[in-house]
Write a structure and sequence with these properties.
The complex is a heterodimer of chains A (about 110) and B (about 110).
Chain A lengths: L3 E4 L2 E4 L5 E7 L5 E8 L3 E10 L2 E4 L7 E2 L9 E3 L8 E8 L9 E2 L3 E5 L1
Parallel strand pairs in A: 2-11
Antiparallel strand pairs in A: 1-3, 3-8, 4-5, 4-9, 5-6, 7-8, 9-10, 9-11
Chain B lengths: L4 E3 L2 E5 L4 E6 L8 E6 L6 E6 L5 E4 L2 E6 L4 E6 L8 E8 L5 E3 L3 E6 L1
Parallel strand pairs in B: 2-11
Antiparallel strand pairs in B: 1-3, 3-8, 4-5, 4-9, 6-7, 7-8, 9-10, 9-11
The chains are: A mainly beta (about 110), B mainly beta (about 110).
Chain lengths: ~110, ~110
């Protein structure tokens, strides 16, 4: 089954404790992206990647890192999480550079940083 | 920051009513316009990707139109059903492949 898998689904942690949210897709998609969803603000793009070893900043990259060492994986790293990063996070992937084909979303990761 | 705006923010309709809502986006450097449907506790699912001015796409009772010259798209739902209750998102990819989403229209269909 074609899917985007994120882990964990839920995480409560404390300020400053490094964490990684994994994202994996099995559709051989070139384009992968991370978004955060906050009430009243819509989905905001954090980082995106058009292929292996190619990553670009989205609208709200501060406090986040990503890597794209393999085509299927696009982890989101919070080196020193802070409470303002408490949010619902989605990973998505798409073929065709993400423009003319729809994005496929993971189930989301709800992060709470105390 | 690119302004992709959606209206109304929320909408309540009776079962059987038809409804529509709007997505507006900058018409310059237009590539495509995406519509997604997002049910509570699930992830967004793609409805349409539209590229050409005057495009009209349909999936069951849901259809969408696109006007790239004036920078807007309409989503129509004919004969709304309770299962249509969801948030409908539009998004515009821009040069460089960065995506901008609107804040969505939350639709509640009352049985």
């Amino acid at each position: 089954e074609a899917q985007v898998t994120q882990n964990p689904r839920y995480l409560i942690t404390v300020t400053g404790k490094k964490l990684t949210v994994t994202c994996s897709q099995n559709m051989n998609h070139e384009y992968m992206s991370w978004y955060r969803q906050d009430p009243g603000l819509g989905l905001r793009q954090i980082y995106y990647s058009m292929n292996v070893e190619v990553t670009d900043k989205g609208d709200v990259p501060e406090g986040y890192k990503v890597s794209r060492k393999e085509k299927r994986n696009f982890p989101l790293i919070l080196e020193s999480p802070s409470p303002n990063q408490t949010s619902l996070y989605f990973c998505a992937s798409s073929s065709d550079r993400g423009v003319f084909q729809p994005q496929h979303f993971g189930d989301g990761t709800r992060l709470s940083i105390l | 920051i690119l302004n992709v705006e959606q209206s109304p923010q929320s909408l309540h309709v009776q079962e059987g009513d038809s409804t529509n809502f709007t997505c507006s986006f900058p018409s310059s450097n237009f590539y495509a316009l995406h519509w997604y449907r997002w049910e509570t506790a699930k992830s967004p699912e793609a409805l349409f990707v539209m590229t050409l001015n005057g495009d009209e796409k349909k999936k069951g009772r849901i259809s969408a139109t696109l006007n790239t010259k004036e920078g807007y798209s309409y989503l129509y739902i004919k004969g709304s059903q309770p299962e249509d209750s969801a948030t409908y998102l539009c998004a515009s990819p821009r040069p460089g492949n960065q995506f901008y989403f609107g804040t969505g229209t939350s639709l509640t269909v009352i049985p």
